[in-house]
Amino acid sequence: MKKLLAILAVFSVFLVGCLGGLKNEKQSFIDATVEATCLVFQSDNIFDPALEEQAKEIYRNHGFDTDDDEAMTVLTEKYENDEDVQAAITQALEDCAGDFAAGFEEAFEDLELEVEGEVEEEEEEEEVVE
Fold this sequence. Notes:
By secondary structure, this protein is mostly helical. It has one domain (24-129). Helices cover 82% and strands 0% of the residues. The protein has helices at 2-19, 25-42, 49-61, 69-79, 83-96, 98-129. α2 packs antiparallel against α3 (49-61), α2 (25-42) packs parallel to α5 and α5 packs across α6. The longest helix has 32 residues, at 98-129. Residues 1-22 have low confidence and may be disordered.
């Protein structure tokens, strides 16, 4: 009886150790997408052809067959409208794109203030002309 319990204990530890680290497909897709998107955000040249190969490598590292275009298309379509996936990716991207997004937002605020100032000046000129 003790041998049986010992074998079951060892087997349980083995299963937890080996299988405990496996992620499901959905979480792997989220992680790979976040990592690949952050790679693009951090790139100096988003049109660099090397980025595509680096992104494919990221997906391969997460267990996806990037050489099978049809399977990758099916995978993308499977999760593109999944609200959980979208929310998780959006949340994670806020971290990697934080400085970029803040700078982008600040640039638009400056542009908006500039445009508003020009509109106000035009309105004042119209009032003077009348």
